[in-house]
Predict the 3D structure of the following.
Amino acid sequence: MKRHPALIPLSHDHHHGLVQARRLRRAATRGPAERGDAAAAFLSFFAAETRHHFRDEEERLFPLLVGAEDPATELLARVLLEHQQLYALVRTLEGELEAGDASASEMERLARALEEHIRFEERTLFPLIESVASDDDLRRLQDEASEPVEMLSAEATAWGMQSEDLNATLLAWEPGAGPPEHANTERDVLVVVLAGSATVTVDGEPQPLEAGQAMTVEKRRTRRIVAGPDGVRYLSVHIRRPPLQISPAP
């Protein structure tokens, strides 16, 4: 199935999820020790990978369907509900494991629910998003997911970390390079230069930043960052987008 490049990383996540779900189902037919090991491995995968994947979908992907005509609203409600159901199943399995025995029935139930959820997104939800989202929206989604990072040197690093409230990303660019110009409509962004220098242009007004300096770019303002003659390494820090929530019908 041909997939828009913006959705390919999420589809790769789905493949890994299916592999883990199948392993969990196979382990459910074995003894208590094997079930315990498999359940612990699956829960570790879910905490490290799937939670982030769900949050990524809820923050960046699903908003592309908000305001679209039916059946988008119904499908969006379904997929958000399934996320919460999967969280609940994971908590149940965690409780069983802590109590000393992960039951075959709960392992099979969780594995089956995850498999069905992934297939629904791949076969129904993702094709709908590709059909209703604009090319610009999908390109922005792709840029956010895989913003190119160019290293200053072999020792330079780029990483990201996040909490329930904050996102922080370290970016490194060679001289004259930088991310494409864009406007963030939802949150203020703090830019802190750690090494080198850069010119930060906000709404057409350039401002030089040296190592140890910082500035805040307010939401709804267009920004462009270009590394100085020695390159730049900087932190980009902002409040996380809230995930989509299911709310009662008016």
Remarks:
- DSSP finds five helices and seven strands in the chain.
- The longest strand covers residues 222-239.
- The mean pLDDT is 84.
- Residues 4 and 130 are 7 Å apart (CA to CA).
